[in-house]
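Quick question about two entries, pasted in order.
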Amino acid sequence: MAKTILGLVGPIASGKDTVKKYLEKKYSALGCRFSSILRDVLERINLPNSRENMQGLSTILRQRFGEDILAKAIAADTIKLKSNIVVVDGVRRMADIRFLKKVQGFVLVAVNANPEIRFERLVKRGENAGDAKKTYNQFLKDHQYETELAVPVLMKKAKYKLNNNGPLTDLHKQIDKLIAQF
């Protein structure tokens, strides 16, 4: 089996990490996240891993080193990973797609869920500083950040789409069906 690189795109708290974890557990996939690069830098310079800090750092890095700087780092990581299935979580820009689609085996997959469901998940998991106390209006405002604006456009370009509005078992069936195609 040739290496398959699944790039996951979706709005905040749509279930991208849930998809990645399922692929890791059931199919021994290995994964990498765009946000991991940013979290590593923020941790190193002793700043909170907040959504605002990650978005600001991403903007600064791309302005200084090019729009595809994070995609280049992720592509290099995917090639090094020793697995037939690699999951790239957090594709957010056209520059990411332009670069990653040149990597053999890359496929874009959209993950989506209704905003109310995503908000509930975001608050419950509290992954980033401030998420647990976020209001629904703040959550909707987060979608207006520069890093989130291209997500709906990229989702339309995805070859495969996963609907994460239902129970986890439904999402797992969709993922199994997707993997069976490879």
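Here is the second entry:
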Amino acid sequence: MNKLDGKVALVSGSGRGIGRCIALKLASEGARIVVNDLDEEPAQETLELLRSTGAEAVNCTGSVVEPGFAERFVATAVDTWGVPDIIVNNAGYTWDNVIQKMTDEQFQAVLDVHLTAPFRILRAAAGPIREAAKREKAEDREIFRKIVNISSTSGVFGNAGQANYSSAKAAIVGLTRAMSREWGRYKVNVNAVAFGLVHTRLTQALDTDAASIDIEGHEIPVGVQRAVLEAAGSRMSLGRGGTAEEAAGAVYLLCIPESNYITGQLLLCDGGR
């Protein structure tokens, strides 16, 4: 028996990077995955990769901030397999600037993807989860469900040039703790993982091939100054940044039965900053 056999997991932003690794890790233990990405191509790549391992998976492509997306995301799980057992709110991006140069749009856009979108997804899942929990209680069955919201060490310690991202990632911890109080009676564990430096395309050195992401017509450059990357790695107790697979491992810990008595917590996955 795998630890997550038959569990239904929604993983936003799972077309690439950490999200893809989370989807693969959960699937390796038997979970059925609803894949999501802003773009069709990476979502399809993850879907095919999952299915090649024998995992059950479906796609729900689209922006997590679109009106109606949250309901469609949850409905994809419910209509295909049933009530979600695991929700990982992972989708996001950074759009950095110092505060005097940061626009209202820039600030709000980052709050929307990292805070408002997870709130909407959890709100959309509330009805199915409540009804399932009531049925299970009436049948004298104890089934735990798992919510893992992705935060960041920027939300814990702050980070220059990231007033928007730091604010959003701090706020998601507040949402996590509020929902752990609301949903404890339904046997839902709600926790958060704060990543430090994890090597993905969003944290590649800026002097490598230039990369950007297209968000609603804005070409947003991604990457970090090489000197900043090297300094950050040297500050870690483990002496380096993490891999996407290692980041996925931290999320996995909060999705397995061994974490059934852990809720409302923030786990730092930062190599010992």
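Reply: The helical segments are 17-28, 40-52, 69-80, 104-138, 153-157, 163-183, 226-235, 244-253. The chain has one domain: 8-200+242-269. Hope that helps.
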